[in-house]
Design a protein that fits this description.
Pfam families: Radical_SAM, SPASM. It comes from Actinacidiphila epipremni. This protein has 8 helices and 9 strands. By secondary structure, the protein is α/β, with parallel strands linked by helices. The chain has a 9-stranded mixed sheet with strand order 6-5-4-3-2-1-7-8-9, with helices on one face. β3, α3 and β4 form a beta-alpha-beta unit. α2 runs parallel beside α3. The longest helix is centred in the middle third of the chain and has 14 residues. The radius of gyration is 18 Å and the shape is globular.
Length: 308
């Protein structure tokens, strides 16, 4: 399906590169040294208005750690008022009272990453002491407030307690638990050049991402594939432009047409199951794995995609 035939239904809005955690596998290379970029609040509200005008259905605020962006409540309320469904992808360690109020007022959904049921192992991945305790407590608070929440378990280390992490999330009451392997982007690449082969194959299909400096990407992982910049051109012009068509063709050449027809949801919204499945789990849903299959890897050989 070409860009002109594919409606833009979903967008990641990466409002900041600042994060209070410093995970080795961070695809965005965010950290406590990150910044909010050059996009102003007016720029972001303009993008939200454009998305609404283009018929988009959902946005996800992401980072970095989006809750560290001081104007996030304002942007959430603007998106909600524009008729967009809102999800915030957060590490759930730093949620101030104003945000809880905004979440409940605007029907916000939440998503978070969870690495282990063991605090020491989880904190070792995030490099933030106490992160497991804070994340777990805020998961419980969100569910207690009736806020929908998805959990994602990323296989990062050999012998990681991914299955136990998934079971812990389920025990807390998280209804949707997804999984993914470490992908070779950002710090996880260990200096290797990013490749289309390490994407899931769904990038730019009814979705795009907008970064802290206004850059438009086919998804948050595919930031090495530039589509344009919202500070230079309207999003509708970018979405219908040559760059999107070329990127779609490049992705299809690697992943094939079938990558666009799998059944969502998966770890990221609007994405279908991807191959390979989590190496330490061997299945798209960690809860359905029979046994730990092997270590977390980067750039493992692809297995056939499967629908669920």
């Amino acid at each position: 399906m070409g860009a002109a035939q594919s409606a833009l239904k979903f967008a990641w809005l990466e409002v900041t590169g600042l994060c209070n955690e410093f995970c080795d596998h961070c695809y965005a290379d965010s950290s406590p040294k990150g910044t909010h970029g050059t996009m102003t609040v007016a720029d972001w509200t303009n993008v939200i208005d454009q998305l609404s005008g283009m018929g988009a259905l959902d946005v996800q605020f992401i980072g970095g750690e989006p809750t560290l962006y001081p104007r996030l409540p304002e942007l959430i309320r603007h998106a909600h008022g524009s008729g967009l469904s809102v999800e915030v992808f957060s590490n759930m360690t730093h949620i101030r009272p104003e945000l809880w109020e905004t979440f409940t007022d605007c029907g916000v959904k939440l998503a978070t990453s969870y690495y282990s049921d063991a605090a020491e192992e989880h904190d070792g991945v995030t490099r933030l002491r106490g992160s497991h305790r804070k994340t777990r407590a805020n998961i419980e608070k969100a569910l207690g407030l009736g806020i929908p929440l998805r959990g994602g378990v990323v296989a990062v280390r050999r012998g990681q307690r991914v299955q136990e992490a998934a079971r812990d999330l389920s025990a807390l009451g998280v209804g949707t638990v997804g999984g993914d392997r470490t992908r070779a982007f950002g710090r996880a690449s260990k200096g290797a050049a990013p490749t289309i082969g390490d994407l899931c194959g769904h990038c730019a299909h009814e979705k795009c991402a907008v970064g802290p400096n206004g850059d438009v990407w086919p998804c948050v992982l595919g930031r090495f594939l530039s589509l344009g910049n919202v500070r230079d051109a309207p999003l509708s012009e970018i979405w219908g432009g040559v760059a999107v068509a070329e990127v779609l063709a490049d992705i299809t050449a690697v992943h094939g047409e079938g990558a666009q027809s799998c059944t969502p949801p998966q770890f990221l919204p609007m994405c279908g199951p991807c191959g390979p499945c989590v190496p330490s789990v061997g299945h798209c849903d960690p809860r359905e794995a029979d046994a730990v299959a092997g270590p977390a890897t980067i750039g493992a050989p692809a297995r056939p995609l499967r629908s669920r």
